[in-house]
Amino acid sequence: MHILDSFQKCVERLFFHKESTKWSKRATYWICNIILMLFLFLGGVILLGYEWTGGLHTEGTGFHLDGWFGGLDDTIPYVPEMAIFYIFVYYGILVFTMVYFAFFAYEKGIALGLALVIIGAIALVVFIVFPVSTNIYRASIVPRGPYNYWAGIMLQYFTIDSSFNDFPSLHSATVTAVAYVWYRYARLKRMKIRTFMAIFAVVAAIGVMLSTLFVKQHFIADVIAGFALAFVVSKLVFRKAWNQFEVKVDLIKYQLDQVQENQFKILEKWNISDANEFLEKSTEGKYPGSETDASDLKQLLAKEKELKLML
């Protein structure tokens, strides 16, 4: 965070006349997220790095991992319709997630950007030293031609995507990171939309990982390696970067437990279980001497409502 603070001062000197405001802080996070997600990950890793490593090796060469699981890869049929997940669902949820965490949940987006860049950098190194290729599958798929709409889309995809850069699967790795960020985000605050997005991201991630096998872009080992890489990197990065947010949530939960415990003690004292019923009877004078407890209970109920809104 010291680096981020120094960068914010630079942003303030350049654009905000050295004044520190909520907009200078917001602009700092926006710029950092753009650098990490757009320039380093999409530009550096995907467009430049991926293209470069894919062209280092001659088509028809490379390692084939179809025997790692006893030939199970060979039994998986080619299903071009899975391009729906492989191309459209994948790029849709990836772009949506990056935009959301870059510009809306921008303070939390730094962790996602860092995780994606680290995952991509590690993958590029592995692509160089361990070139895995799925050309053995393309050799039988391409001659079939565009026998339906989705087969045509996959054939076009094959023309722009090298058969290398397979282990680990970047598709599997990035959707794992995407699912992980939504999962952690949903844990920070209980909201239906966050829970929905976390569930949707997990389902989408599973669909994308399966699709890499059914469109014959990856071996099973590639998918497992991509998932493992992203899970470990994301867990380490988020543990460090999101610690301040999660500590705050833990504190709120602790305060909520204390408030609810104090409510219970008051109600137990008057041998009643319903707070509203107690307040009503206290107002009617049915519990002589309960005015102070009733006042305290009202404050505790208000505090409980406030804390729940913060979760």
Word description of this protein:
- By secondary structure, the chain is mainly alpha-helical.
- It has 2 domains: 240 residues, no CATH class; 61 residues, no CATH class.
- The chain contains 13 helices and no strands.
- Helix 5 runs antiparallel to helix 10.
- The protein starts with a helix and ends with a helix.
Structure in a nutshell:
With 311 residues, the chain is mostly helical. It is 76% helix and 0% strand.
Task: Determine the mean pLDDT.
Answer: 91
The helical percent reads over 70%
The strand count comes to: 0
The oligomerization state is: single chain
Element-level helix/strand string: HHHHHHHHHHHHH
**Number of self-contained structural domains:** 2
Helix/sheet category:
mainly alpha
The coarse silhouette is elongated
Q: Distance between termini?
A: 24 Å
User: Number of helical runs?
Assistant: 13
Give unreliable regions as ranges. none
Main sheet specs: none
What percent of residues are in strands?
under 5%
Layout of secondary structure:
Layout: H1 2-15, H2 22-54, H3 72-75, H4 83-103, H5 106-129, H6 135-141, H7 149-160, H8 170-188, H9 192-214, H10 220-241, H11 243-269, H12 275-283, H13 291-310
Helix pairs in contact: 1-2, 2-4, 2-5, 4-5, 4-8, 4-9, 5-8, 5-10, 8-9, 8-10, 11-13, 12-13
